[in-house]
Amino acid sequence: MTKFMICPYCSHSESKVCDSRESEDQKTTRRRRECAGCAKRFTTYERVENLEILVVKKNGRREMFNRDKIRAGVMKSCEKRPVSAEQIEKLVDEVEADVRSSGLKEISSKKIGQAVARCLKRIDKVAYIRFASVYREFTDLADFEKELEILTRNWRRKVNLPSPLDLAKRAGKVRN
After folding, report:
1. Residue 68 pLDDT > 90, yes or no?
2. The whole model's pTM is what?
């Protein structure tokens, strides 16, 4: 018998574990319990308590790390884009894992934003631009153009396409 596991039906403090299972991600243990008082069954979940991490905002204010805020920002950036809920959840998991594995008790919101942007850039370029425009506080069209130019240049390198300048040189429209 286990003490101090309060039955949700009769508030008895003793129960026995009937079944235990690890979740797919190995982060949670699901336990089916039977109350010693009323014999009804109920489920409990056990997981390792995460260390609390403080996020240092741009203005110096500190707040608790909250993965839901990351998810909300990513979902807003991915609105009406072909990005699945599963991809968003994996991105949030990856960013949280990066933050927690850093071993820091405090982390800047800038570093979290960089991690989110890096992940979004791999998933969807439009969602990345949307996120970057808010996170990096784009103020005018020039900021968007600059970021699009960098994305285009990287994409051309990746697929081995010549730049517009190289094409113009080949066509004889520009001299070296």
Report:
1. yes
2. 0.59
